[in-house]
Amino acid sequence: MNTKVLVIDDEPQIRRALRAGLERSGYEVILAASGEEGLDLAALHNPDLIILDLAMPGTDGYEVCRQVRSWSRAPIIVLSVREGEEDKIKALDLGADDYLTKPFGMGELSARLRAVLRRTSVPGEPDEPTFSCENLAVDFAHRRVTVDGQEVHLTPKEYDLLRYMCLNADRVLTHRQLLTKVWGPEYADDSHTLRVHIANLRNKIEKTPERPRFVHTETRVGYRFRTAG
Questions:
Q1: Mean pLDDT over residues 35-50, rounded?
Q2: I want to staple 174 with a disulfide (CB 3.0 to 4.6 A). Which of 24, 192, 199, 222 is the partner?
Q3: What are the distances in angstroms from CA 27 to CA 20, 21, 23, 40, 172?
Q4: Cα–Cα distances in angstroms (integers) from residue 106 to residues 100, 130, 195, in the given order
């Protein structure tokens, strides 16, 4: 069965372009011209992934994202002309999985789409007992991390941070999301603590921490654990 992608965008030319490009890649495409229609079609078709515009009349993309995330685990990729970091952070905090600014290339969108589809569930208990990417391996059951087969000793918070990022691999995670999930709501604005732990984690798992392979910075927004080089 083909992967179902729901496109919610009020611009007809964007809908046509996305349908043509996605169908060439073998996806089944469902189109919605408004937030209200998008919510109805999401409930009706239970899509595998949603591509969502933010600036729409009536029910905007933020509200669509909030409502969809209350009942669906389908990944959401935001497409928007809004380039401000506040817009990105708000969408990601509401549950979007990635954010791409218009104009965009189909090649980049397809790569982002494949990345988020690799994750089939929201964070929780891992489906597999271990996570591995190139020379890095994380044993969730034993809280054990190895690089090139050698065990790396992480502090409890460093491990919790790496675990959460691995469970959300290829997803942009905002500073607030990481701080809330790993340290608790009272640390939601403590960006210094996060920066220190990210730096320490990179020093332990990256071959060249100044040019990290795994823990990638999304400038002024957050971080992403990359599975593809």
A1: 93
A2: 222
A3: 10, 9, 5, 20, 23
A4: 11, 33, 33
pLDDT in tens, 109-138: 998 898 888 765 444 445 568 899 999 999
Predicted local confidence at residue 73, as pLDDT: 81
Give the three-state DSSP class for 11: coil
Q: What is the pLDDT of residue 200?
A: 95
Q: What's the CA gap between 99 and 33, in Å, rounded?
A: 19
130-225 architecture in CATH?
Answer: Orthogonal Bundle (1.10)
Q: What is the DSSP string of 128-164?
A: SSEEEETTEEEETTTTEEEETTEEE---HHHHHHHHH
Token code pair at residue 67:
């409502």
Q: Which residue has the higher pLDDT, 95 or 150?
A: 150
Rg (CA), the chain: 18
What's the rounded mean pLDDT across residues 131-156?
93
On the question of a cis peptide bond just before residue 103, with omega within 30 degrees of 0, the verdict is yes
Question: What does residue 113 show for φ and ψ, rounded to 5 degrees?
Answer: -65, -45
- CA distance to 52, 69, 93, 138, per residue, from 75 (Å): 10, 9, 13, 24
Contact (CB, 8 A) for 92 and 52: no
Please list the residue range(s) of the chain that carry CATH number 3.40.50.2300.
Answer: 4-117
Of the listed ranges 46-50, 138-142, 145-149, the least confidently predicted one is 138-142
Tokens encoding 19 = 């349908």
Average pLDDT over every residue of 64-85: 86
